Amino acid sequence: MPEPLNDKVRAFWERGPVGTDWRITGAAEPRSPAWFQRVEDNRYANEPFIHAVAQFTRHRGKRLLEIGVGAGTDHLQWARAGCFCHGVDLTQAAIETTRAHLALHGFSSELRRIDAEALPFADGSFDLVWSWGVIHHSENPDRIIAEIHRVLRPGGLFLGMLYNRRSLSVFAEWLKHGLLAGKPWRSFADILWHHFESVGTKAYTLREVDRLFAAFRRRSLATYMTPYDLQHWPPAIAAWMPQRWGMFITIRAMK
Question: How does pLDDT run across 128-175, given as a tens digit for each residue?
Fold first, then answer.
C-alpha cells in the first residue's frame, strides 16, 4: 500500500515548524528567547498583513482554535490578546515548540497533535478558527474546511490563508521545474505538488477558494503580494506588480 499523503506531510514538517530554518534563527539556541524572537521578527517582517487579517486584539475573551500552530508565533498573539486558546497540529515538533513558546511568556494553551481532517471537538465549540498557510498541505483540504464549519458556533468566524495558484511565486516555480527543465507541459498544480514545501502542496484560484467555503454564509477574500513573490524581480518592476498576483489568498468566512 502507498504511504498516505498526510504521513509524508507530517514527516516533512517534523523536521521543524515553518520559519525556524537556521537561515532565520542563526546561531541562537533552539527554543531560546533569542531563537523565538528571530522567528517572530522574520514572520511579521515578511507577512505584516497577518495583523490586519487577524486583528488579534479585537477577539478578547473568545474561544479560539488554531489549525497548524507551527512555531507558536501567531498562537502567542492570540494568547496575549486574551483568547481562550486551543491548537492542533499534524506534528509533535510544532506542539512542543508552541508549548515552549507560550510558556516562555507565561501563557498556556490546550494543544493536541492530530490530523485536522477529523477534529476531536463537539459541534459549535469555538467562536473563532485561525489557520495561516496550513490547510493546502492536507490530503483533503475540503474535509478540514468542513470540520472548521462544524466546530464553529453559529455566527462564528474563520480567518486564514491559502496559496494562490495564479501568483508570481507559483510562476517562478513553473519556470524552474517546468520551462527551464525542458518540461513546459507540466501544470502549475503538478509543480506545486512535487516541488513546493511538503509533497502534495496545493494552490487555488479565488473562485476555487470561494467554492471551498461555500457552506459559510458570508465570505470575503483578498490577495496579498509577498516578498516571496517579488524576490526574483528588479524593484522597479516589482513596484508595478498587481496584488492579485500575490501568493496569499486570505479568507474571512462567517458561519
Answer: 999 999 999 999 999 999 999 999 999 999 999 999 999 999 999 999
Model pTM above 0.85: yes
Report the amino acid identity of residue 161: M
Give the Cα separation of 219 and 230 in Å (integer): 28
List, for residues 61-83, the tens digit of each pLDDT value. Answer: 999 999 999 999 999 999 999 99
Helices marked H in 92-151: 92-104, 141-151
Looking at residue 74, its amino acid is D
Q: The dihedral of CA 14, 10, 67, 211: what is its sign? A: positive
Q: CB of 157 within 8 A of CB of 131?
A: no
Expressed as residue numbers, the domain containing 127 is 5-254
Residue type, 155: G
Nearest-angstrom CA–CA distance, 54 and 210: 19
CATH number at residue 141: 3.40.50.150
**Residue with the three cell numbers 477574500:** 221
